[in-house]
Design a protein that fits this description.
mainly beta, ten-stranded mixed β-sheet, seven-stranded antiparallel β-sheet, 10 helices, 37% strand, globular
């Protein structure tokens, strides 16, 4: 592989001399590199009868050379112009099957080599598995026969996976997918000289939009988007490909439960320069299976005109979907408040339905007092309706009787109240093969599965029965302290046979079959071992502490292998965090996570440094809580200080952390937090800020959970921007950013400008620009080098920090 040079814009670590260097990729210490490159445990997909398991092995990280392949960034998407697919994917590189009853593993034959698989999809009877195979110049469709373990290519025309990869099973032998209309090498070529300037205009309509990236910027971009997004819908039955309708830009395809109709959403011109493809003007049609138009449901304008502010929606119909419990009935919602949540009306949304043959007037089902969030269908007398308010951090679940129209609230709670979250309804397949809400005890109770199970003792997942009449839950089974076990499927709801995934600090996650009625010994059906042997002996503890204003906090503390407090004394510390907003101090104080989970490595996480002698406090709670009738962010900086001081005091009081050798770091909003802490406190010896936003005026129509615009609260935007206080950032800060960041708001210019500002005022900083990386980093060489940078920075300014000299 050719050597790729990494551009690093930096101030030399060894002194204050300005430098702008290009250096070769560097490797972190072997313990860190080995952790990063450890072969990950395969992912598991199990059929509903617990008869077959599909194991999918994934490539760990692509090379930077792979990331450097040709790419178009248009309409909010990143496209590989050579093969009609997304340009940044993580692929499966091997499949195998295991028969749970016989305990025999079967290698899948007929797989293409090398395998670059994705979009895995079981057929309705779970006898076949479809997947896509992506090569340099096309995407193909394969089907695995589960009984024989043989894979076979089933398409002739190359797929177009731009607007949605993979295929949909219509029945056990029929697949629906999109194919390319023209060869990729026929794409428009950029003219040397444009025909004229690029012009945008607005004629008096408000169009407040978030700061999105990779948008259409020119007429040539429009041509490229239309070329690559246009596809032909195909039905493949027993290998015979039949076109459905005409080529179009299909952004949504949904088949009715009875398989006789389709909802097709197609994008039309004019394409927007302000929003991504999902917000372009579109038409929603009902067609028959041949693509013949039955009824136009909606002609939707661009989402440019959606009002700003959370819980506000565009004043158009939305959320078109099929009822799962009827042959062919479409349901959707529309606002009753013109899309403005602050409008003083009793109901904000109405939900409507229309049944085949779609010639009657739409029928009103019910109205909601908050924003309609969706329906889980059950049967003729039961459906579950969700409505929510993001601004108020509130969610409500109601019981709806489709026959009588009666609506009854089952519960309403804060979306941040994890302790009282009852879980999610267990579902089963109905006669149409659709997942619907499962009822027990003569239709009077639901099974609720809570895969988190937050509690004052940490996360303890549970399975419960919920009585629809009394509105109370009875816990049938709950994970016990010492391990973390959750229900992944209910195999037999009557005999309460469960499929669970169990792990502990020492035991890697594995799958078990559990019988709650017979209470026989659990049957272990996988045997995954620890891929991270380098972490054996590292201790993990969920620590609790209190900040100065009384709010309880927690964090996950990792200490190095063989560490002895009495012998080794306080350690240098890395605190890694991500702030969250809360309307309630009670919700903010709840314990999240479990110390009994198996420690896994994330390439973006901080655990690597426990191998280098650091105490690592991961997931350090940084709540920003509404106080005295104000919004959470009104006291953002002050609360960051309280959170950081509390964590430092706790680690120091425990005797494991040296308060004079503390570092703080984070990614994205965690980087924003880091820069703010370094601008407003002297608590840390160093900071690491990756892919952050540091100037909030670059996100003027809101950010994170802040829905006030810059013009609503200009002082807030100024005070929350660490860029405003760059002259005060004297603590060494390492800035890292992907040069192709695709996240709304975290444009790379944030790091460029903050670096220049800190440098301008003589601060100590280093800016690492990772080539070809988006918001999350993927290239192997880039990640290894990033870890080298972080380790070198921590060793220089934290572990080997010069003693503080008192004045």
């Amino acid at each position: 592989m050719k050597k790729i040079i990494l551009n690093l814009f930096l101030i030399a670590i060894s002194g204050s001399v300005f430098a702008q260097d290009a250096i070769n990729y560097q490797l972190p210490p072997k313990a860190i590199a080995d952790l990063l490159l450890a072969k990950p445990t395969p992912s598991v997909s199990i059929d509903s009868k617990a008869e077959w398991m599909l194991f999918s092995e994934r490539n760990s990280f692509p090379s930077v050379e792979e990331l450097a392949m040709p790419e178009y960034r248009i309409a909010g998407m990143r496209i590989n112009p050579n093969n009609y697919s997304a340009s940044r994917q993580t692929f499966i590189n091997n499949f195998s099957l295991k028969n749970i009853k016989t305990d025999k593993t079967v290698a899948v034959t007929g797989l293409p080599s090398p395998l670059y698989a994705s979009s895995v999809n079981w057929n309705p009877s779970e006898t076949k598995i479809a997947f896509t195979q992506t090569t340099q110049n096309r995407v193909d469709l394969y089907v695995i026969d589960v009984a024989t373990g043989k894979a076979m290519k089933v398409n002739k025309q190359p797929l177009n996976a731009i607007m949605g990869g993979g295929a949909t099973w219509v029945d056990d032998n029929t697949l629906l997918y999109r194919v390319a209309v023209k060869a990729a090498n026929l794409a428009p070529t950029r003219p040397l000289a444009p025909k004229g300037p690029t012009i945008q205009q607005n004629l008096g309509k408000a169009a407040p939009n978030p700061t999105l990236q990779d948008l259409i910027k020119s007429p040539f971009d429009e041509q490229l988007f239309e070329f690559f997004a246009t596809s032909q819908l195909i039905q493949n039955k027993a290998g015979v490909e039949t076109p459905i309708g005409k080529p179009a830009i299909y952004s949504g395809i949904s088949i009715s439960p009875d398989k006789n109709y389709m909802i097709l959403r197609t994008i039309k011109k004019p394409f927007s320069y302000l929003v991504s493809a999902g917000g372009f003007p579109s038409v929603v049609n009902i067609t028959d299976r041949t693509g013949k138009l039955v009824k136009q449901l909606a002609d939707l304008p661009s989402s440019e005109e959606r009002p700003s502010g959370y819980d506000n929606v565009q004043n158009v119909p939305r959320g078109f979907d099929w009822r799962d419990d009827e042959p062919a009935t479409i349901v959707w919602a529309k606002p009753l408040d013109s899309g403005l949540i602050k409008k003083n009306v009793e109901f904000h949304d109405v939900v409507l339905e229309l049944s085949a043959p779609f010639t009657s007037t739409p029928k009103e089902l019910f109205k909601t007092k908050m924003r309609f969030g969706g329906i889980s269908w059950g049967n003729a007398t039961l459906a579950l309706v969700r409505e929510n308010s993001r601004t108020k951090q509130t969610s409500k679940l109601s019981r709806y009787n489709p026959t009588t129209g009666a609506v009854e609230t089952l519960y309403e709670l804060s979306t941040n109240d994890a302790y009282n979250n009852p879980g999610f309804p267990v579902t089963e397949k109905n006669k149409y093969g659709r997942q619907v809400v499962l009822t027990t005890d003569g239709g009077t109770k639901l099974l609720l599965n809570n895969t988190t199970g937050a509690s004052a003792k940490g996360d303890l997942p549970f399975l419960a029965k919920f009585d629809l009449n009394t509105k109370k839950s009875e816990i049938l089974w709950r994970s016990q302290p010492g391990s973390f076990e959750m229900v992944t499927d209910v195999l037999d709801p009557q005999k309460l046979v469960l499929l669970t995934r169990r792990e502990s600090q020492k035991d890697a996650p594995n799958y078990f079959i559990k019988n709650l009625v017979l209470r026989v010994a659990d049957r272990k059906i996988t045997n995954f071992t620890n891929p991270y042997t380098q972490l054996e002996g590292v201790t993990k503890e969920k620590i609790s502490y209190k900040r100065a204003d009384g709010i309880d906090l927690t964090g996950d503390l990792y200490l190095p292998k063989g560490y002895n407090k009495e012998k080794d004394g306080p350690l240098p510390v890395l605190i890694w965090a991500y702030p969250r907003e809360f309307n309630s101090a009670t919700d903010a104080a709840q314990i999240r996570g479990s110390q009994d989970k198996f420690t896994t490595i994330s390439s973006g996480g901080p655990l690597f440094f426990v191998t280098q002698g650091y105490a690592v406090l991961d997931n350090a709670e940084m709540p920003i809580v509404a106080k005295d009738g104000k919004k959470p962010n009104d006291t953002f900086v002050d609360q960051l200080k309280l959170n950081a001081e509390a964590a430092i005091n706790k680690l120091s009081d425990m005797g494991v952390g040296d308060r004079n050798r503390m570092a703080v770091g984070g990614h994205s909003y965690g980087a924003f937090m880091t820069a703010n802490l370094l601008a407003h406190t002297n608590l840390f010896k160093a900071g690491i800020a990756r892919s952050g936003a540091y100037n909030r005026t670059l996100t003027p129509f809101g950010f994170q959970n802040e829905d006030r615009t810059y013009w609503d609260a200009p002082q807030l935007y100024y005070e929350m921007s660490p860029f405003s206080y760059a002259n005060k950032i004297k603590t060494p800060i390492l800035l890292i950013h992907g040069e192709m960041d695709d996240n709304p708001g975290t444009f790379p210019i944030n790091s460029e400008r903050l670096f220049n500002a800190i440098k301008g005022f003589g601060g100590t900083t280093r800016f690492v620009y990772l080539p070809y990386e988006a918001h999350g980093y993927r290239g192997k060489e880039n990640i290894l080098h990033m870890l080298w940078e972080m380790n070198t920075w921590l060793d220089t300014y934290v572990k080997n920090a010069k003693p503080t000299v008192s004045k």
